[in-house]
Amino acid sequence: MIDDFAILIGTMSSGMKCANCGKGVMYGHKVSHAKNRTKRLFKPNLHFARVMIYGSIRRVRLCTKCLRMLKKQSVFKVSPKVESSAVATA
Question: Is the whole model's pTM more than 0.70, yes or no?
Fold first, then answer.
């Protein structure tokens, strides 16, 4: 059975790939001071995050750029009790 989130982004989930933007592993060279080139991997900075998708909370791997974007777009609601106690202590 295909996951709803996989349908949403159009690909199946894979190891080192962001679930939102699809950023993945890149290949290149490590270059020394003497300009010797050896092969290396550039891995994306992925973190697990709990994201609400179609009303259910899913645990997905997101790159830090997407995490920052989602934090900026989301609205955090604070309960009145927590808000009033924070004002009283300040």
Answer: no
Identify which of 28, 25, 20 has the alpha carbon closest to the alpha carbon of residue 65.
20
**Separation between Cα atoms, residue 23 and residue 26, nearest integer Å:** 9
What whole-number distance in Å separates Cα of residue 54 and Cα of residue 18? 19
* CATH classification code of 4-89: 2.30.170.40
Cβ count near 67 (within 10 Å): 17
Q: Where are the domains of the chain?
A: 4-89
| Range 41-69 average pLDDT | 91
pLDDT of residue 78: 45
Q: CA-CA distance, 60 to 52, in Å (whole number)?
A: 10
